[in-house]
Structure formats: structure tokens, C-alpha cells
Amino acid sequence: MDPGLGLAGNGTSQVSPMAQQSAATATFPVVDQTKWADATGFLKAACDDLGVGELIHGENFSLFEAMSALEIMDPKMDAGMNTTGYKTVEEAVESGAAPIFLTISQIIDVMDHLLACEEEDFVTFGFGLPLDAEGDNKCLATLNAVEESLARQLRGCKGAASGKKKSTEEVEPLQDDPELEEDFCESVLCRLRFRKSLYHALVYMEKPLGRGSEMAQKHITRALTELAAVRASSGFLSARRPLKDPVESTCTASGQPAVGFDESVNRRLLAPTPPRSIDILSWNETLNYFEQLLNDLNRICSLSSDLELEDLLQYIVDFQKSQPDLVARARLQLLLLQDGKLLGRETVTDSLYRAIKLQNERPARDTETYNFLTQCGRLTMQLIRTMCTNPAWQRRKLGRVIQEWGLLLEQAEFSRETSFRKSGVGGQLEKTGWTDDVVMGWAAELLCWVVTHFLLLGFELELYSPNEYCMVYWYLDHALMTLMHYKLAKERRRLEAELVKSNDTSPESAKKKGKKKKGGTIKPVVNKEIRFTPSVLLLQCYINLCKGFIWMLAALTADRKIIHRETIFNTELERFTQRFELLHKIVVPEPMTYLDFREATRHRHQSVKELYQVAYDHFMSAQQHIQELSQAVSKTPKMESVIKAQRVVDIRQMEQVALRNRIALQIAHQAGPGENLRVTFEFSLHPCFAVAVVKKP
């Protein structure tokens, strides 16, 4: 039938005279609801007049419809344009492209290719392959039977090779060449055992309260051993079936394509969406992926169950620095929040009561405090879930977390002031004066920690341009100083509690301490210094690095070693507003304006030499605090192993950043003003703190 003709409602081909007249005048025909008209002439005339990129559309066709439309006959958008491959599994089997009976080499290729496909979101039942239809138990039983049969076959091969008497039990060989039987058996066995070990490790990790962590670690260790054997088998398999032109992106150990796989199968199964061919990892990438996954799972299993909330959040941050996969991050979240409880042991609200308690007393469970901490518990669970996502999604969600924490603190401040007025207590609770209030101080400290993490993530994601480094480091320094203020206040409260406890002469305290020696006196603890914990020292290192970078930029700018050029798209004020508008909606840290930034970084009364010296001194102070942090970490035996290992890495990275920037300052200062030097900044030593690179162009 002519594609230009349509069928009428009664099944006959019919064109009305009015439609013919309309087509002749190149206008849309007027037809009733049951008849079709021939528009071939009109379409041909329109095609002759249209240029490249032009489109005929109705009056209601807007940009939104254009973005959601599909372009017919475009191979990238029209699934029907790709006619290669097979439409169904049955068709592939009948044609021989997906044979049912495979050789042992082909079976190993299929096993390897399936392993490589697990980076990809591959839903088996959506492609007509319900592999889990009979459940895990029957699948494991089958695997055990196959493993036992292969193990007997392998023992028989080794016995024959050593001249021992063969077993009376007959086992069907995997292939025809007896000299290759042992290598093929080992290749299949290590792949089956790797699968089993990985499965058992994941099952044991699901046990509540971390009861299965020890067994999971044993299976992870075995899985790593079997994975090494899988990697070692690549040499044998690739040597047996060499390719004329080896391809690095092959998904099998042999280098041969696996039979029965069609990467374009989803182009027809997902017709409403633009076609997308699956991008599968290469064989080496697959092995590296599973090796990192097992190591990440091992780190999760080694997590201590008695960590405080502060250490737990720091553990998540340090764990994310290894860029774990979705599977590892999901397992970590399941472990941290089991049945809505922190580490499966207690509710988050009860954990918060433990986290903010003083050494000698527990916050009263009054209605106001309980409601506030209940809301804090809800937001803390949301924070933990957010911290377990990938960095880009995490930073996006942290913005919402910061807003909700800020709103909660504002509501708590209003409620507290209302209570003060009702009780007749004068004065107003200052927004930055919450250090004397245990509950509010804890919430403000956590909010400051989230803000600093939010700003640091921007460097890891490379969101900031060089023109924004100064303002970001300046605001980060402000947030770090505020966080340091609350941490030191908490440590001061702890020392005061110890002082009160040591001077307690009540009968109850005497019974706990035992009988006092005759004539003995109680010596009060006075002038006890505040202990700088590793977390406080780490903040101090960050602060010195931020200040050093700010003053280094000021020195290089004043010495005409770098020139700031305004962009044509936005001004510095607009960039400042875009970066920190979210932080202006919260009360802690205190919002800082663009005028505050300009005033703090103007440096009108310092000479160039003084600017260089101040920057140099800050990097020198950073190195001193880094040494103190190193000593404190080594003297903290109870520190979580993952956190301790990451602190060692941070210490080495920060030390290199401070040293390299001091050298860059010396080189730039020794050169004359405006001398032809090129100063750039790179994050080669630390993901968040830049290093100045001075070169002659």
C-alpha cells in the first residue's frame, strides 16, 4: 500500500475532493473523524522547503515537548533503527548464536562475562532469564555438588600425574585432552568457590548486632584467595585460545567473546526510552572491582560496635575516601541502621543521650529536652543515610540536612527564650553562647561539623573555580574555628565534671571510693590543662592550612605573581552569594557576608614581605600541629583501625602540602615583583588543600 494513503474507518481507501484541493494548496486537509486523507504532496512540498534543523509543529508545541520528543530514524534515539541481533532468547538459541551445550572453554567465558556484567544494573528476569526462580538454597546445593565432582576430578588428575593409583570412581572429564584437565578443573573450581565465598560473606553480614562479622571476614579472606586464583588462570586460558589482535576491553580471561550475549538486547526491550548499549567492564577492571569490594566489606566487618556518634560519623567520612562501590556503601548503611537502631543496639535518641551526657550526670528527660533530642535523632538518621551515598548525591542532600538542622536550632532557641520569659529569668540566650548549654551546644557542634564537611566535599568534587578558592577557604576557616570553639567547650565541661567528682565528699562518694586513710585530705584538681584530642588537633591543622592559603593568595596577588580576572558571566559578589546562600539561612556558624569577606582579605596595612611571612608562618604552624597529631594518634590505642589508618594518610598528605607551599612561597618571594612566573594550584597531594606550583613560562 502507498504509505501516503490511509484507510478509512470502513476499511476502504478514500480521498475526498476537499482533501485533494487542500493538498494542492499546501494546507492541512479538513477531514471528518472517520476518514483519512492523502498528505503525501503536502509533506513532500514541506520537505523541499525545510532547511537543516527546521521543524513543522503546532502552536502548542513548546520547548518542553521538544526535549521529551524522540527523533524517528535517528539510530541514537529510535530503537527500531537497529535491526541487528536477536529479538528473543528462543530465536538466538535456534540460530546457534546461544547454544545450549557448551565446551568447557565456553562455559568459563560465560562465567567470566556474567561476573563482568555485575557492575551493570542487569535485571535477569527482565530479559527472560529468571535465574533465581528456584531460590538460593537449591542453587547452593547444585554448586556444592558440582564443586565436589570437580574436586574429585582434580584429585584424580593430580594422582595420575604423580603416578599414584587412580580412583575406582569414574568421573567424566571436562574435555578431551588429559594434559589440560587439571588446569581446566582448577579454573572452574576457583570461580565456583569465589562465588560461594562472596555469597556466604554477604549472608553473614546481614546478621543483627554484627554477630556474623567474624565469619564474614573468614569468607572474605577465602574469596580474596580464590579471586587471586581466578586472576592467575588468565594466563592459561588466554594461551590456549590466542587472538590475532588482542583487545584490552574483553570481558573474559581468555580474551574471547562469550557466546549468548548481545549488548544491544535492551534497545528493543526498552522501546519507550532512547536505546543504550550496556558498557561492561573489561576483565582486569572486573577483577580489580571485586578485589576492592571485598576489601571494603572487610573494613565494614571490622567496625567496632561501641563507637560513639562522633567517631561513627568520622568513620563514614574516612571510609568514603577509598571511593567504595554502591554495594559496600549499602552494606555499611544496613549495618549502621539496623531496624532503625544505631548499630542495632539502641535507638538514635538514646545514643544521643549518651553522646551529650556529662561525666557525672545525665541530662534530665524533661519534655522539652526529649522532644528536641527526638528531632535530633530523626535528623541524625537522615544524616547517616546521606553520608553513605556517593559524594555528588551526598553533597546535594547535605544541603537539605543543613537547612533542617538550622531550622531545628532556631525553633529550640525560640522555645528556650519563651521558657525564660515565663520563668522570669532575664536576658537572652545568644546564638553563639550555647556552649554552656549541653544539649544545644552538642547540636550546634554537629551542625558546624556538617557545614565543614559540606564545604570540603566541594573540593573533592571539583566544584570550585580558582577564583573562588580564597572565599571558600575563608568561609571554611570560619566554620572550623566555630567547630573548634564548641569542641573545646565540651572538653572544658568534661574537666569541670572531673573536678567536681574528685572533690565530692558525700557519704555515697566515700563508699564508692573506699575508706579514707586516717588524717588524709582530699586534694582538689586545679589548673588542669585541656587535652587536645586527635579530632581537635586535626581541626587545628585544617585551620592553619586554610589561613596559610588565604595569606599566600594575598601575597602572590600583591606581588603581581597571579592576576585575578573577572569573568563575563558573574561578579565576585554573585559567586559568593551562590556558594554560601545556603549557609546564610542557619544560625551556626554565624552567617558571614560578602562585606565581611572583603574586609578580612583586604590586607591594606601589610607590605608584600609581611604577607609572605604571615603565610609562611601559618604553614609552619600547620607542620607543628601535624607532628602533634601524629604523636596523639600513635598514643590512642582505642582509635578505630580505619580511622587511625586514614589519620596516618591525612598526616602524610597535609605535611607534604605545608612543605610544598612553604617552598613555593620562598621561590616566589625571591623573584622580583612582577617577574615572569606562572603560579598555578593543583590538588595532587590532598583532595581538599591545594598546592602552589611556581614555574617559568
Automatic annotation (TrEMBL):
Keywords for this protein: Cytoplasm
Entry-linked Pfam families: Mak10, TPR_NAA35
Any one GO cellular component localisation term in the record: NatC complex
Domain (NAA35-like TPR repeats): residue spans on this chain: 300-692
Ranges of residues in domain NAA35-like N-terminal: 53-118
Protein's cellular compartments: Cytoplasm
Disordered: annotated segments: 500-520
Family: Belongs to the MAK10 family.
Protein name, UniProt field: N-alpha-acetyltransferase 35, NatC auxiliary subunit
